[in-house]
Amino acid sequence: MALILAIESSCDDTSAAVLRDNHMLSNTIASQKVHEQYGGVVPELASRAHQQNIVPVVDTALKTAQVSKEEVDAVAFTRGPGLMGSLLVGVSFAKSFAQALNIPIIEVNHLQAHVLSHFIKEDKLSITPQFPLLCLLVSGGHTQILLLHSHFDMEIIGQTIDDAAGEAIDKAAKIMDLGYPGGPVIDRLAREGNPNAFQFATPHVGGYNYSFSGIKTSFLYTIRDYLATDANFITHHQADLCASIQSRIIDYLLHNFEKAAMKLGVKQVAIAGGVSANSYLRTSIEALGKRHHWQVFVPKLQFCTDNAAMVGIAGYYKYLQHDFADISLPPYTRDNNL
Length: 338
Ligand code: KG4
Ligand code: ZN
What we know:
about 350 residues, globular, five-stranded mixed sheet
């Protein structure tokens, strides 16, 4: 039995979780509202807010789990990728906490944590995936199709060659002046709109890779052209624009994913990352799964966006392998950029 305290602070959410083995006992998240007025995450403000939130968030996670800090066996933390100032808060906290209690630390890759969120058990009835598992990882910074042979053996089958899917959605929202982050707003407004009202560019990239920059530009130019004749074009067509750009991006994501799943012959599939909260993506992949007889894993909303429970489950599997980190380990901002 292992009691893991997990810390996540890679971007603008300060989160702490407690897991007993693969069972989640608590998952506390403090989101930072301060960035909304700036239309994006302001790194300097994010690190300051983490600094204010980290102690109360960890305290709440331990209290909710009804454990004392002396019972903790190891501390898992997001080492990267992310914003340096944000990461430093969580990494430094995790190291000091562990040193004070003389327990090991476990470094976790944020992207692997998003994928591994499917292995968290909330109760005895939780069903977790089998291998091989094909996962579409879609967040604000990453878009990848990953084939998991085991928990940490993740083979990249396809990935974006430019922007991430979440970035493209947020950019479209920004063009329509819908605020930040735009993903949830587009999701809501799209429900009232016609996904076929507007057509945007179809990217052509090889293999199972993606490109979103053409879709983004095509969206921008379409709006610019219509605005020339109707100054209120965006307000008049908001729902149709949201539904059209959302379906363009999500259908494209699933097109390559379906091709890859068929080619690889996998039957276990999953989505993960912030964009996996998108209701159209969630219903579309369930429908695809029915057609192909896949077992589809769609994360609960609390595990889509950044949270420490996913860091805890990744930490737990490393704990089993005694894969502990050295206290001198620095954070990293980009994948493979240590
Ligand atoms: O995983 P995440 O919280 O942070 C990163 O690691 O990047 O993902 C954030 C991204 C943002 O682009 C946000 O707009 C998007 O997830 N997102 C959504 C929805 N909820 C969050 N995109 C579409 N529909 C949603 N409901
Ligand atoms: Zn994330």
